[in-house]
Amino acid sequence: ALISLRQLLDHAAEHAYGVPAFNVNNLEQMRAIMEAADRTDSPVIVQASAGARKYAGAPFLRHLIQAAVEEFPHIPVVMHQDHGTSPGVCQRSIQLGFSSVMMDGSLKEDGKTPADYAYNVDVTRRAVEMAHACGVSVEGELGCLGSLETGQAGEEDGVGAEGTLDHSQLLTDPEEAAQFVAATQVDALAIAIGTSHGAYKFTRPPTGDILSIQRIKEIHDRIPDTHLVMHGSSSVPQEWLETINAHGGEIPETYGVPVEEIVEGIKHGVRKVNIDTDLRLASTGAVRRFLAENPSEFDPRKFLKESVTAMRDVCIARFEAFGTAGQA
Ligand code: G3H
Ligand code: 13P
Ligand code: NA
Ligand code: ZN
Questions:
Q1: How many CB atoms lie within 10 A of CB 252?
Q2: Which of 169, 266, 286, 295 has its CA 20 to 30 A from that of 115?
Q3: Nearest residue to 78 (alpha-carbon basis) of 186, 2, 168, 174
Q4: What ipTM did this prediction achieve?
Q5: How far is the CA of 175 from the centre of ligand 1 (A)?
């Protein structure tokens, strides 16, 4: 059944688990997520970005998610809009049937320019008023996602600030977080703790000086009743990088957020964990390997089946590690 983010994360908080929120753009991702949820008895958050709507088209995306609800009626599904850039974008998603929206007012409407606190409060409060009137949940964001190591937001062409961010923007301030939640009434808050979107998060395995799990604890101590969200939470599996590079790929050395660090975050109030890149890497690795090993195959179902299996196994691993398994 389709449920709201609030319903799911209240349950997650009560039972001390976290929920991966996987980005979805196509049928194969949707099938991989649902097969993993079905096998592990996990509730699901699927999220669609502006890029996903552009790629698949809003009606296809909507029906893809609703098809999942229909095929797996026993699995709770949150249909979430990722990184909405204005209250108007959120309104259109609500009209499309999303049960949850993110109003990312940490950036201006262009999705690139860091916005000030007053702007963020204004757009987020407006989105909350509209969404809550429709029974839809809202995730806000305070602080700018970006690497504490490089000061870069990460993603070149997608969501994220342009240019180099200063250090104070890269870690959400606990006091400001408390004010923000009181002023906006958001259901969940995305916080900046040193992660960034995309595959190029860290040039070495991250330690406390470039990934601040400590900051999660400080924010959670200040606002224990607010569900915290970690964006940029792909772990960038080294085995998938090796598979890609062994079959014609050229991805330079890079590291993501270790699963153990996310599990530590979940102990301190993180309830929603955004993952996109890991499924992209698994899919690409599986397809590259299949086509390299089966050069005469040309039926897309053959290599896309490999893509589904690879993504499904990543989803299963996250559901199990985050304690989502068994909670559906
Ligand atoms: O927030 C970023 C997600 O990974 C979505 O990426 O904008 O390329 O669809 P995208
Ligand atoms: P990754 O790029 O680390 O997968 O993060 C995805 C994300 O935060 C989507 O909002
Ligand atoms: Na989001
Ligand atoms: Zn994000």
A1: 9
A2: 266
A3: 2
A4: 0.96
A5: 29
Q: Read off the DSSP letter of residue 22.
A: E
Quote the strand ranges of 12-71, DSSP E.
19-23, 44-48
Residues with CB under 5 A from ligand 4 (ion): 231, 274
Burial of 296 (0-12, 13-18, 19+ CB in 10 A): exposed
The confidence score (pLDDT) of residue 168 equals 77
Residues 6+ apart with CB under 8 A from 250: none
Write down the catalytic residue from 10, 41, 82, 225. Answer: 82
In sequence order, the 6+-apart residues with CB closer than 8 A to the CB of 42 are: 19, 36, 75, 319, 324, 325, 326, 327, 328
Which CATH entry fits the domain spanning 5-321: 3.40.1190.20, 3.40.50.300, 3.40.120.10, 3.20.20.70? 3.20.20.70
Paired tokens of 249 = 């790929």
Return the bridge partners of 139, or none. Answer: 102, 188
Give the DSSP letter string of 105-150: TTB-TTSSSBPPHHHHHHHHHHHHHHHHHTT-EEEEEES----TTT
User: Mean pLDDT, 10 residues at a time, over the chain (328 residues)?
Assistant: 98 98 98 98 98 96 97 98 98 97 96 95 98 98 88 66 77 97 98 96 93 96 98 98 98 98 98 98 98 98 98 99 99
142 token code pair: 């305070």
- Cα 87 to ligand 1 centroid, rounded to whole Å: 19
Asked if residue 228 lies in contact with residue 191, where contact means CB atoms within 8 angstroms, the answer is yes
CA distance 48 to 251: 26
Please tell me the distance between residue 82's alpha carbon and the centre of ligand 3 in angstroms.
4
Distance between CA atoms of residues 206 and 255, nearest Å: 8
Ligand 2 within 6 A of CB of 155: no
Is the distance from the beta carbon of residue 84 to the nearest atom of ligand 2 less than 6 Å? Answer: no
Ligand 1 atom nearest to 83, measured from its CA: 1
Supply 104's token pair.
């990312």
- Rounded to the nearest angstrom, the distance between the alpha carbon of 274 and the centre of ligand 3 is 7
Q: Which atom of ligand 2 is nearest to the CA of 256?
A: 3
Residue 82 designated active-site: yes
